Amino acid sequence: MTRRLARLLAALYLTMAAFIGPAFAQQAQTSRPIPYPVVPSAEFLRAIEVGTRTESGSPGAAYWQQWADYTIRSLLDPGSKRVEGLVEITYHNNSPDTLSFLALHLLQNLHAEGAARGGEAEVTGGLALERVEVSGQEFGRRAGSDEAGYEVDGTILRVFPSAPVLPGTSLELGIEWHFKVPRVGAGGRMGWNSDDMIHIAYWYPQVAAYDDVVGWQIDQFLDKAEFYSTFGSYRMEIEAPVGWLVMGTGNLENPEEVLSDAVLERYRSAFGSDEVVHVVTPDDYGAGSATRLSRSGNLVWRFFADSVRDVAFSALRASNWDAARTPVGDRDGDGTTDYALINSFWRPDAPKWQHACRYAQHSIDFLSRWTGVSYPWPHVTAVEGGGIIGGGMEFPMMTLIGDYNTRSDSALYFVTAHELGHMWIPMIVNTDEVRHGWLDEGTTTFNENQARKEYFPGVNHDIPDRDSYLASAREGDDGPMMRWTGLHRPGVSGIVSYPKPATVLVALRGLLGEETFVRGFKKFFGDWAFKHPKPWDLFNTFNTVSGRDLSWFWRAWYYEDWTLDQAVADVIQEHTLATIVVEDLGLVPMPVRLTVTLESGRVLEREIPAESWLLGETKVELSIPVRSPVLRVEIDAAGAFPDIDRSNNVWERGH
Q: pTM (2 decimals)?
């Protein structure tokens, strides 16, 4: 341990002692647990020490991250449901570390015989490696620990080059592979739903994330928790039979080579249209109508994507294609509005999808404004994948969503806003979904609800998630959000990843006020766009922007499974003095916001600060001088905080 790290830890411990020392004495009398300050991991503290992270929440002056350039050439055979390909990777070691091996994800190995997994999965054989090359030299499986070669451990491939990868240098990899496409794959995130639609994702050897805090993040993919990978550029070629439309992550670079003249004209017109253009309808299905013909019977679709953490694609031959543009703000600072293309692909037997393009237009427009980060890529594409997925799944520039035929019209908007919300987190703000699923899912759920409010005004769309979280908490189906995603009890992971963190962000907004919250929220997105934040970066950002040490808030809500339950125990009035007795029956300390209504009609607002509970109290008396009898007292009339029992939040005279 270095001296500076030791000093940081010592300072933290002294702060903790000063913060909770008096509280421990009080706790002996009250038996109330006191939330002690947040202590980040030792690895995060080292990152602060060396300057890649800061205590303010912003990236440090010495921040670095890895990069990979990919070229993928692949062949899709829809008949046999087989994908084969070659990926060439140039891995750039921008870190100060010497790397003895490179780690890659083989996510299709979830479907290998005997694979460890969190649920049932079709066994297809997984991803078969046909050839592995390093710097042009073919490698085999390692026979000894000192040899160059590769090792496969479940969903992780480790490649050991002949010499370590030094800081500031690059390494060339070439891997050939193939796999059979499962009917429903990667935990319901890819697959095929008929002979007319295939969605391919988690399908190629992909470099794992190596960051300044964790190093190699090579947790096994078990299908419950999601993903974490590094940014890069991708050149992707998909060869597929004529008649099959292919859309994938990245800019389609050769539309004139693959689309028929009529479809090409409509496609190009959509780039300048605010109204939905029907690029492909049932009249266009088939080779020579939707796509061009070729002597070989196949067409090659070419895409290029920059600054993305993954690529995916869909192949369809009996789906409608709608498209239109949507504003994303001023990306390049030239004072003019920029646009992205919206695509939606949907089968005619999913009629609710006729509105999907409009839903996506609004979602991308709103979220560009709401986060303060303009949508950066050329298109976003929503694909109807009923039969593969019931809800939705996100990929850079792509999302796969169920048909929603039996649900309300608004439900399709909700899931569209959610899945496209993931374009910001984790696709732009690149979080570790494997360990901290709440950071992307909960934030995206919160963002979805704000988009709902603009599209369907007059309704507080935060309430359903609050009620969902509270119902689970009352049943004991709750857990600490900072527990790694895959380690939650069955049934708990969804609550602590989606509605609970969304609800706690609403509480944070209520605590700080709209202006301060939005400023902190946008600063986090702006600072960490195209970088790799950790939860403590989020915490530190809000501490800095608010000018407050919110350790008690982070500890109580994120590290514990405590609940909030404030109650008006009594109101005692003697002449012109009213004493309001408030009890804190839960364990989460929060300010008590009182609305006091007098017989005269006057309404008073008073607040008991959270610090009262941090001293170990469970009951506080607040005296208010009044000139009229008190008729009613209510805690949190605005409904900003998730109180588990609101029936005791109100006192009324005579009741």
A: 0.94
311 contacts 205 by C-beta, under 8 angstroms: no
* 583 confidence band (pLDDT: 50, 70, 90): very high
Sign of CA dihedral 438, 364, 543, 39: positive
Please give the Cα distance from 496 to 494 (Å, whole number): 6
Residue pair 104/83 in contact (Cβ under 8 Å)? The answer is no
CA distance 431 to 428: 9
388-392, long-range: CB < 8 A, 24+ apart: 388/184, 388/188, 388/190, 388/191, 388/192, 388/193, 388/199, 389/184, 389/188, 389/189, 390/188, 391/415, 392/416, 392/418, 392/419
Q: How many CB atoms within 10 Å of residue 120?
A: 9
Taking Cα atoms as reference points, which of 365, 408, 368, 363 lies closest to residue 382? 363
State mean pLDDT over 584-588: 97
How far is residue 108's CA from residue 121's CA, in Å, rounded to a whole number?
11
pLDDT of 13 higher than 50: no
| Segment 628-644 mean pLDDT | 97
What's the chain's average pLDDT? 94
Q: Which residues contact 245 (CB under 8 A, 6 or more apart)?
A: 280, 290, 291, 315, 316, 317, 319, 321, 345
